[in-house]
Amino acid sequence: MPSLVSAVATPASGDADTGSQVSGGERRSEARERLLRTASRLFYDEGIRAVGVERILAEAPATRATFYRHFPSKEDLVLAYLRGVDAQTVAAVHAAVAGSSSPADAVRLIGAAVADDLVRPEFRGCAFLKAAAEYADPRDPVRQLVLAHRDWYRTALTGLFSEVFADSPRRGRPEDAAQHFVMMRDGVMSGAHLDGVDQAREAFRRGVEGLLTLLH
């Protein structure tokens, strides 16, 4: 389905492997991957600023020399962590598109992936929202990476909603629908543990269905 593929096509300035503009080309090694896995778990569970390099080295385990050979600074490690989350999200969006028979079904599958995340035992909210709360400076590379990821996600949804609405006489604005989807996603990922996961998932699903059926 060329039209669906074009809806989430790789931006001209993006990374060819992920379809996003935030991925890097770091050198791979077993030690690097072990450090990144450990840091990713700790950053997500406990917060980025709360976890120091010494803690990561102790749990990886790894030497300081090994760490700095792969990550010149903690910021480089943080960026690699978020690029990994970005790559997983982009892959999930592409899988939803590839596994759908229509743009509307693709949107539903993307929404289902969000809803399924909420019931994972290790779920602690959106990694990007959590990172943004810790890095408020808009000039900070971490904050810029978060914004680049969100821009890609919103653009992909806008493309899908453009096809959902097509030439309907009640056609909505695809960019508004995409922004609405992102806002609902932010809300359910931030508040599900407070409001009850089952109720939050159902409310999110109804919201996604409403975007698909009420605006065209």
Automatic annotation (TrEMBL):
Source species: Microlunatus flavus
Keywords recorded for this protein, A-Z: DNA-binding, Transcription, Transcription regulation
DNA-binding segment(s): 52-71
Gene3D superfamilies: Tetracycline Repressor, domain 2 (1.10.357.10)
Record domain HTH tetR-type: where: 29-89
Keyword Metal-binding: no
InterPro entries with a match to the protein in the record: Homeodomain-like_sf, HTH_TetR, Tet_transcr_reg_TetR-rel_C_sf
Name listed for the protein in its UniProt record: DNA-binding transcriptional regulator, AcrR family
Residues forming coiled coils: none
Region span, Disordered: 1-30
Alphabetized GO MF terms: DNA binding
Top-level lineage group: Bacteria
Pfam families listed in its UniProt record: TetR_N
Keyword Transcription regulation tagged: yes
